[in-house]
Amino acid sequence: MRVIAAAALAGALTLAHAAGSVRVAEAWIEEGPPDVPVLAGYATIHNPTAQTARVLNVSSPRAERIEIHRSEITENTVTMTRVDELPIPPGGEIRFTPAGYHLMIYGVAQPPAAGEKLPVEFEFDGARKVTVEAIVRRSEGSAGAVEGSGQVEDAP
């Protein structure tokens, strides 16, 4: 009986950890022309925790660097600004879109083709990291992707 109770408790703790972790989902990268060294990436970050989670860095072994940018449209002008730190509110989410927050992926030596996957790592405050496999897709019909999901891994 104690073994069953201990196993049930361990299972409940595992589920609680998974439910209380920051997640990155729907990660995808827009396929670009072969001669353009900059790509755009998108994802949704869910923060079901009771504290603000901050994205501090995004990287990939396939890119020189990745930056978070925010596009804003004001009076027929689009401006794009680099964001050094992105807070995700408690119980909230941030959806990366072409007209809002998005990833700018610089220095991809060999541009990926549609269907390929690129590893992308999101680093959060507290040394927490989420690595996802972002699928590369053509821009048409790209809304609603569900591939490329990951969950925070606490640093050792």
Description:
This protein has one helix at residues 2-19, and strands spanning 23-30, 38-47, 53-59, 65-74, 77-83, 86-88, 92-95, 101-106, 117-124, 128-137, 150-151. By secondary structure, it is mainly beta. The protein has one domain (22-139): Sandwich (Immunoglobulin-like), CATH 2.60.40. Strands 1, 2, 3, 4, 5, 6, 7, 8, 9, 10 and 11 form an 11-stranded mixed β-sheet that branches. The model is unreliable at 1-19 and 141-156 (pLDDT under 50).
Largest sheet properties = 11 strands, mixed
Task: Please work out how many helical segments DSSP would assign.
Answer: 1
| The CATH C-level class name | Mainly Beta
Number of domains: 1
The overall average pLDDT, rounded, is 81
**End-to-end gap:** 33 Å
Give the overall form: globular
**Strand and helix order:** HEEEEEEEEEEE
> How many DSSP-defined strands?
11
Name the descriptors:
156 residues, Immunoglobulin-like, disordered C terminus, mainly beta, eleven-stranded mixed β-sheet, 11 strands
Strand-helix topology:
Elements: H1 2-19, E1 23-30, E2 38-47, E3 53-59, E4 65-74, E5 77-83, E6 86-88, E7 92-95, E8 101-106, E9 117-124, E10 128-137, E11 150-151
Parallel strand pairs: 1-10
Antiparallel strand pairs: 1-2, 1-11, 2-7, 2-8, 3-6, 3-9, 4-5, 4-8, 9-10
